[in-house]
Amino acid sequence: MKLEGIRVLDLSQFLPGPMLTQMMGDQGAEIIKLEPPGEGEPVRRVGYRANGESVWFRNTHRGKKSIVLNLKDKTDREAFLALAKTADVLVEAFRPGVMDRLGIGYDDLRAINPGIVYVSISAFGQDGPDAQRPAHDIAIEALSGVVSLNLGADGKPTNPHMPVADMAGSYTALAGVLMALIGRQRTGQGDYIDISMQDSTMAWLPNVVGPVFAENRPPRVKEERSFGGYALYNTYETADDRYIVLGGVEKKFAVNLLTALERQDLIETACGAPGPGQDPVKEFLRATFRSRTRDDWEAWFAGKDICFAPVLDLHEAFHRDHVRHREMLLRDEDGNLHIGCPVKFRNEPAKLDFSLPRLGADTDHYAPRKIPGK
């Protein structure tokens, strides 16, 4: 596998760091999870459980090893430093400055392991006015302008339903780690990677910052092309109180749809600018889609070259035939369900290890303490 032989120390918790290291583990890296004494990784206890384990923990910690060390304890810290000498990558997600105060910051580890790739994932980065500000995903999305785009039917901001900041930070960190490992092959030196979840989230916005950059104003959300300003990029209710979406504004899709619905007179309007000018097409489509059920419309659209999709609930989505075919829903020998690996190598495919680590089970193997006097 691509990352076989790479040893990763994971000091992170919750989602961004653990997701990053699980993706590396699925491709062959050895992941050693350092958990705090006591109850360990918090998501062991968070949310729904199946067969005695948190679903969240199962889908971010498969195949990892678990060690427990108190990094404020001198003996434990020495055991950690001995292990860090052998690591290729270290991932941490404490607030800026914590690792340095513990004596295990990048400069401390680089002195004993010049090749280490050290990645810090934080809400707002290691420097700047907000660096010490506490935040989880929703607060980061709010400060990144994303919550303002996520409007409910009443036109007011509502909770985002995906952890965009967490996952953007995770995938940005993965890219940075892999770049640094490639660079190390050339120089022999590792590097320090400062990943801000806010930076990562804002980097995902090139298709929606037009009004900000071009006209020095915030988006008028319901009028913008990506948020409902186009009739052919919108959500519509069906006869059974379910929903479908249209997701392509190219002229060919307008021609194909409106011709099939015998409303060729609306084609030019549908191909116009987003905003109020689209209202006649939206009104026609609202009335039309309310005339049949969601499943009826899915059958009607079959074989037509139109960007259409039924709005599935999450259970439906994970049990769709295509998702099974792509192995994005997997079941282990004990019957537990897992989210699959999205990176599909042809020659060296991922090999998922569905085992979960018991808290601290691998401490003596990876980080034996040197007890004074023995």
From TrEMBL:
<dbReference type="InterPro" id="IPR003673">
    <property type="entry name" value="CoA-Trfase_fam_III"/>
</dbReference>
<dbReference type="InterPro" id="IPR023606">
    <property type="entry name" value="CoA-Trfase_III_dom_1_sf"/>
</dbReference>
<dbReference type="InterPro" id="IPR050509">
    <property type="entry name" value="CoA-transferase_III"/>
</dbReference>
<keyword id="KW-0808">Transferase</keyword>
<protein>
    <submittedName>
        <fullName>Succinyl-CoA:(R)-benzylsuccinate CoA-transferase subunit BbsE</fullName>
        <ecNumber>2.8.3.15</ecNumber>
    </submittedName>
</protein>
<dbReference type="GO" id="GO:0033877">
    <property type="term" value="F:succinyl-CoA:(R)-benzylsuccinate CoA-transferase activity"/>
</dbReference>
<dbReference type="Pfam" id="PF02515">
    <property type="entry name" value="CoA_transf_3"/>
</dbReference>
<dbReference type="InterPro" id="IPR044855">
    <property type="entry name" value="CoA-Trfase_III_dom3_sf"/>
</dbReference>
